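Example 3.2
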Amino acid sequence: MTVFLKTITAKFSRENFLLLLYLFAFFLPFDMFFCNLLTILGLLFAVLEHKISPPFDKGVNTLFFLFFGLFLCQLVGLAYTQDIKMGLFSTEKRLALLVFPLVFYFTRFKISPKDTKRLFFFFQLGLSTCVSYCIAVAMKSNYAYNAFESIQWKLFSDTLLDPIGINHLAYGIYAALALTYFVYQVVERKEKVIWYQLLFLAIITLGLVLLVPKMGWISIFFATSYILFRNRSNISIKYLVVAAILSGVILAIMLKIPKSRERIRQFTYGFSRNNIINDSTHYSSSRAGAFYASLDLIKEHWILGLGTGGIDKEMTKWYMDRNLSGLVGLDTHNQYFDFLLSYGILGLSFFLLSLFYPLWLAHQRSFTLYSTFLIIMIFSFLTENFLNNNKGIMFFSFFNSLFAGILNHNENVARENIGNRE
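Structure, written as tokens:
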């Protein structure tokens, strides 16, 4: 048995591990089957290849213990939840919060800037492939509907991503990271732009324009602003001019799309208790309903929370008591509210620490890419529970653990990256 295990282990190598990462990055936007399979292989690899020493430095060790702690919150919350069935289901969904930190903590291969560049190539390729396929399906549907006599925007904006099973909110954060990585390459690493990068950029941006994920655009703005601020002394005016022109063109196109105009109209509807209507499709009203439901429940359960999986029943009761049956099924739409309602003030404090301590550490060590990822997630969590769906959990846990592992190998990653430019 020992000889057998050694034989298997010998077949695994750093190259095999990187191949798993590349494949995972590519398939992330696709059906969850591929990601689940690659996650299992990654965990198996970590078990066979595990390396306990040399240890990570103190700062990075703290990061991984914080990541493990996020999953531990799930287990603690099971002890006092009123809905154990939903609690177990939620815990099973969030297993990735444990698995990816374990994979990167025990393998500890050094991932170079070249490896990171390749990984993002596959990530952008996968995202572009998905969007291209979905646009082709939508165009085919448009042709079948009226032979292109008029564009049925609903087929693009409302059902565009249906063929691959990802919602527009998850796509928003995927696209935000893919596009800000392009900015990072050009502004900080001073790399030359290759034709396929421009192609990826155009396709992914087109997806954002058609889907109108508001927080995706906001995240891109703040993440890009951070990159520009970090490199303000080296910014050429031509970058700012090009960025301003592109932003203007994109905004003009978006205002031509009915969904964008409808979102703007609904946003001006008013965000108050008096304006909540029994319609989950009304953007401002549904968000207001989720917000005030969460706020009322927080006032009652802010100390310990409702436990893992305990929110759904209470949210449903709040809606039904106010004759808002059309809103049943809407969650808090805020990851911070979700942690506070699930695990109380201590759980929320731990969650905030798991976001802002890595952000501080990455900023101190000039790891701009990790900082921009965290900025994207911090803003995205304001309007969505990304850790309540598989696509969001996989994305967050994978890249968070990946960047934390990279952070260990050099106290100033930016300087190392500059020294390894190709």
